[in-house]
Amino acid sequence: MGSGYLEVLRARHAVRLLAGTLVGRLPNATAPIAIVLFVRAEGGSYSLAGALAAVYGVANAVGQPVLGRLVDLYGQPRVQLPAAVLSASAMAGFAFAGTGTAVVAYLAVGAAGLLTPPLEGGLRALWPGVLRGEDRVHTAYAMDAVAQEVMFTVGPLLVTVCVSVWSPQAALLVLNVLGVLGALSVVVSSPSRAWRSAPREAHWLGALRSGGLLALLGAFLFVGMALGSITVASVPYADEHGGDAVYGWLMAALGLGALVGGAVYGARQWAGEPARRLRVLVAALAVCYLPLMLMPGAVGMVLLAVVAGVFLAPCIACAFVLVDVHAPRGTVTEAFSWLVTTFTVGASVGTGLAGPVVEHGGALWGFALPGAAGCVSLLVLACTGRVLAAPAWGAVVAASSENDPNRAVEPRFSSGHQA
């Protein structure tokens, strides 16, 4: 089962790029909880803490596709490392200035989010040049989706360790220093330094002029909404079945399910069109969300949460393949960054929508939202099936020497860049 992953990890530079990207993304994965703990330690209100965390999230969602476009235009080292340093500097300014002056705090946190380097999209742009094979790249996408779940599980634990050993201020500083070191490890590698995006057609929409990409982003907005609504709906359920410990187990169970599902999905090769496969995976995701409405006892609910998470990482991995297919030439990093942004915005919308739903209808209606959002995502994919299955810009790129220095044609392999 693990032979595909081992084959990927044995490739030169693969471990370094994956590890460096995960470490480089730690500040982004831990920022919300680190900001909340720091504001609380400074004596600020939870309203201020939530507002600052929200500003960071919105700024990050805006900055990712913008910086992704700059990476496609100017290369990874010239954008990723300066962005990482500036983002860490802004967060350090927030850590030293504190919350005494609200305007300064908001500006610092906003700058940190806006300048977060698009390492996630950058890594996916590098995989084809490092792995030299479509099947290997697809396995790497699945491995990447699994690694994300590990990062978002381990990251908050690192924050709590830093807070308990040192202080919330130290947690902000240490994690951002680690982020800069992770970004540095990636951009000084030979694949990152040698990578160049394919020549692109000048267009103000950039990657968004792709109909297939727009269809995919529309679907994943609702996948993000499903995940965001679960995090809110689980709160009143946990309050009635054991408190914070139960809530923690539910969130961990979702992550565990995603880990298992992503590991199994990436361990084999899948035949057939990725667009059709994504519809099946999203349908399974929506179906697995529905049993959460049964709301059994804590143990049963944790098991249902594991099942609910199983198809999330496979959906994300399959979406990576479709982004690669439909990204216009020279926009691959930007296109991947748009997927990250859309998913993040969807999760935020789901969180905001679930609040009043839970307040007026209770946990039952809160757990109805993920299944409903999953069904809407499936409807979007069904309505745009022809667009997603249609030949994209990548069909031409795949046959060019830009993708393979040996001129070996790889059908529907479309990143259109070279290393």
Protein traits:
419 residues, two-stranded antiparallel ribbon, 1% strand, disordered C terminus
Please provide a written account of the structure.
This protein has 419 residues and is mainly alpha-helical. The protein has 18 helices and 2 strands. The protein has helices spanning 3-10, 14-24, 26-41, 46-74, 77-97, 102-114, 119-131, 134-165, 168-187, 190-194, 211-241, 244-266, 274-289, 298-309, 312-326, 332-383, 385-389, 393-397; strands at 196-197, 417-418. Strands 1-2 form a two-stranded antiparallel ribbon. α8 (134-165) packs antiparallel against α12, α11 packs antiparallel against α15 (312-326) and α13 crosses α16. The longest helix has 52 residues, at 332-383. The two termini are 29 Å apart. Residues 394-419 have low confidence and may be disordered.
